[in-house]
Amino acid sequence: MIDQQLLKRNGFWIFLSGSTLAGMVFIALVTSRYGSGVSSDAVKYLSAADSLVHGRGYQLYNGGALYFFPPLYSLVLALGGLMTGLDVLVVGRYLHILLFGLDIVFTALLLRKVFPEEPYFQAAGVLFVVFSVPSIRLYANIASDPLFYVMALGFAWIAISYLEKKRAAAFWGMLVIAGLAGLLRYVGLSLGVTGCAVLVYAHWKDFRVMVVKGLVFGLFSIAPLLAWMLLYNLGVHGAFWGSIEHKVFLPWVNVQWGLAKMLHWFIPYYQPLRFLFDRPFILAAGLLLLLGLFNRRSHWLAWLRRLSGKPAYPVMVFGLVYFTALAVTASTLDHKGLESDRYYPGLIVTVLVLVFAGLRELVFPHFGAASGKVRLAILVLFLVWLSYPVFSFYKYARAALVEGEPSISNYYNNRKYAEMPLMEQAARMLESEPGAVFYSNYPDALWFHLRADVDGAPRYAVSNPPEGALDRVLEQIAGWPGDRPGYLVWFTPNIYNHVLPPEDLARVADMQLVYEEDSGQIWEVRPR
Question: How far is C-alpha 482 from the chain's CA centre?
Answer without folding.
Answer: 40
